[in-house]
What we know:
This protein has helices spanning about 15-115, 140-155; strands at about 120-130, 130-140, 160-170, 175-185. The chain is an alpha+beta fold and about 210 residues long. The chain has a domain at about 115-185: Gyrase A, domain 2 (2-Layer Sandwich), CATH 3.30.1360.
Amino acid sequence: MIRINLLGRLRPKVKRRVAIAGTLQLVLFAIPVGLAMIALILHSTLIIRPATNKLREDIAQKESEKRTMAQLQKEVEEYEAEQKRLQARLDVIENLKRNQAGPVRLLEAVGHTVTLTETLWLTDMEERAEGQIQFKGLAGSVNAVANFITNLQSSGYFQNVEIKESVEKPQKGGASNFEFTLTAKFALPAPPAAAPPSGTPPGGGM
């Protein structure tokens, strides 16, 4: 009797086992890779991203502080410039006051000095440079010229008094006059120091 197998040939079971084993190996390989990717994503989300955000916030804060400091520096510079302008105005006012008082004090000092000196007359007085005064006059004697120089020096308004010329001019009757030229530096005395507050003993309270 002849038998016919209509179901076909049976596949070898070995090949099916190999296929299952390969799939299992692929799955086992994919699991660690997937876990690693998940860990990387979690690391990026939970650690890197917050750190990046914090860094950005720090940078923004530093930039804000920098702008604030720049604004403060600008305000300080403007304040210092305004102080310099005000000080310059005060200096101008003080100079004007001194210049106004200077000629009056000069005339008073010279008039008082000439009054103290006998037999001496001024014929000319000229300001040659800043504070540098030239005097010309007549004196009845050399001693009168010397006394005039001494009185100028002791007045407190004149410094560096120098005699430039002294010429004897004989007069009728045997008398003589002396024509003289001298220079002196005119300067207002320094203002007195401010008095210490009442109740403060001399020497700083020691």
